[in-house]
Amino acid sequence: MAEVTTTNLELQIKNAAGKAKVVRVPEPSLGLDRVTTERAAQDLIEANIFVDDSGDPYVTNVGARYVKRTVDEIYNVENEPAV
After folding, report:
1. How many helices (H) and strands (E) in the chain?
2. pTM metric for this prediction
3. Among 9, 14, 16, 54, who pairs with 28 as Cys (CB 3.0-4.6 Å)?
4. Given the DSSP bridges, would you call strands 58-72 and 20-26 parallel, antiparallel or unpaired?
């Protein structure tokens, strides 16, 4: 079976209530450094475009990381040819 690996960049941010939030960027450029990711997170915070379900804005940059996910599918009936 086919193995599929995906990568996301996760920008870790806290909202105004101090709760941890994550902004995920699918298939980012690899090799991004701290300066670049900090600037990206700060730009998102300053744009004030993200709020949580309670209306609290994202206000504090905490960190950034790559998250890789590998799926090795055994079977999926939806991908099988019709009989």
Report:
1. 1, 3
2. 0.82
3. 9
4. unpaired
